[in-house]
Amino acid sequence: MSKSILEQIDEVVKENDVVLFMKGTPEFPQCGFSQRVSAILAEQGIPFASVNVLLNEAVRQGIKEYSDWPTIPQLYVKSEFIGGCDIVSEMHESGELKELLAPLKKEA
């Protein structure tokens, strides 16, 4: 029996320390908000998984239900929903995001 879309999303969220559900890819974002969050994560130097919601309408709708959040992108850290572009941008500017991600930085 195949897994429901919410089970598949849950698996991705739990298997990755940092995962960004976005429109497009980090290399080729398809919206400005996705580009912004992707750039912030790159600036933080944190490896992250990304899911292009444009490739699958079920994922695009399912992630909104999963998080009870209406917009894309959506950032998850250690299985916790952090937020969308505005929240991530504010956390980045305040230094809160850096603190949140610090334990995940790979030792050089």
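The above is record 1. Record 2 follows with the same two-line structure.
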Amino acid sequence: MLTAESLHPGRWWHALGDGRIQCDLCPRDCQLHEGQRGACFVRQVKNGAMQLTTYGRSSGFCIDPIEKKPLNHFYPGSSILSFGTAGCNLTCKFCQNSDISKARDMDKLMDSATPQAIASAARRHGADSVAYTYNDPVIFAEYAIDTALACREQGIRNVAVTAGYIHPAPAREFFAVMDAANVDLKAFTEDFYHKLCVAHLQPVLDILAYIHHETDCWLEITTLLIPGHNDSAGEISELANWMMRELGPDVPLHFTAFHPAWKMNTVPATPAGTLTQARRIALDAGLHHVYTGNVHDSEGGTTFCPACHAALIVRDWYDIRRYDLNASGACPHCQTPIAGRFGTALGRDGQAFGPRRVPVRLATG
């Protein structure tokens, strides 16, 4: 049972005048009576005000390679301290992390840490960044923002892995403290969002455009391709053409393979050929950097120069086999700048973190 000490004042809500309050964090606009929780499960009305029930509580911490987020153009080879909480504001029937995002058991939150403790742990373990991930960080925005501010004080970067289902006002505060984001664009049809996520497409498209055009946050996009649901050539073409028109050619796009999960555990896994075809369609539409994921595909994981087509960052899963960018992040063969955030060397001290996964415990009690 939650205690007063485990609750944290929530933001972005208003009273409706009939005893209920409305959550203004995301487009679900949950209208709640005393004691009720929103669709995300972690925002609850207590004493007539919104409370966040997962502040300072995590489902676990782990140091990963940055490429696992996936981010291929944000300090390649660097390490990142990843953590999440519980719950989600989408109800995707195909969720690949349903044990965390669909959790209704707060006992899953085994680790506890203040924002300052997380920042200090990242620094202590040599992580270059902190990732707000596993479940969607927009639902614990207060905790994520406070942690991001603490990280910035210690020179640690911040990365959001999110579905981008958030209203504009909280989005301005949230992405203002994020250095990079990978946004999960579930599909490119309203029908898919409505039937499989109980959500809407347009708010996500609006957030993608906002991040790219109005913030300093580096943006990459991921679409999980599900056989028979969002993997048609026509839909992939529409997605790529929208990106070209609204975002330009330099925002990286990742197509990743679906594996049977949660309420879609009878749907077959995505064939590797589907990802290869999607990548080719997006490249033909003019996008410069299109990747495949969750499959072994060296070409689909490699960063190529969009001008001379030289292989600049060769990846094997999360292992960087060759890094051939100059100090300014440009192609050394034709001097074309490569879009992204690149350091003067690969990873920390010139060495890539590699495909390791290192669990970390922060709890002191």
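The CA atoms of residues 23 and 60 lie 27 Å apart.
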